[in-house]
Amino acid sequence: MPDDVATLGTQRSKLLEEFLSWGDLRPGSITAVIRRCGKPSCHCAKHHDPGHDPQFRLTRRVAGKTVTESFANPTALRKAQQEVAEFHRFQKLSQDLVTLNEKICRLRPVTQERGGWTAAAAVHQEVAREVNQLLGRVFAPFSQRDFGSTLLPPQRPL
Ligand SMILES: [Zn+2]
Predict the structure, then answer these.
(1) How do residues 88-116 score in pLDDT, each as one tens digit?
(2) Ligand 1 center to residue 150 CA distance, Å?
(3) All residues with CB under 5 Å from ion ligand 1
(4) How would you classify the pairing of strands 29-35 and 65-70?
C-alpha cells in the first residue's frame, strides 16, 4: 500500500504518543575507566592486570567542553544508565519523526491551494504551524523539568 498523508499522519500520532510516555532522560555516554592505585607492589601495576574495580563515568558535551561525572554507588550508575538509554531512544525517535514529517511535507497536496506565490506562502505557513504544534506537544510535558539547555527546542524562526 503506497504511503499517503493520512497513513503517515497516523504513524506520526503514534510516534508522538511514545514521546509523551517517557521517563527521565539525559544526554551523555557512560564509560568504564580501569583504576590503578599507583603502588608499584600492587597487582594492578602489572601490564596485563585488569586493575581494581572500574570507575564508571558519565561524559557529556556542555558548550563545546567535555564534562565528566562519577557515581557515588552502583544504584546511581544504574539510574544514569537508564536515563542515558532513554535519551538515545529520544534521539532515534526524533530522527524518525523528522523523516516522517519530510514525507508528509512532500505528499501534502498543494493543488488545493490557488496557484502562484500565494500558494507557496500558504504551504510555508502550514508547515510552520505543524512544526510548532509538534514541538509544543513533544516538549510541553518536559518544560517543568530542568535537564539542560541541550534539550530545549530550537527557538529560531521557521
Ligand atoms: Zn592497585
Answers:
(1) 999 999 999 999 999 999 998 766 555 67
(2) 38
(3) 37, 42, 44
(4) unpaired
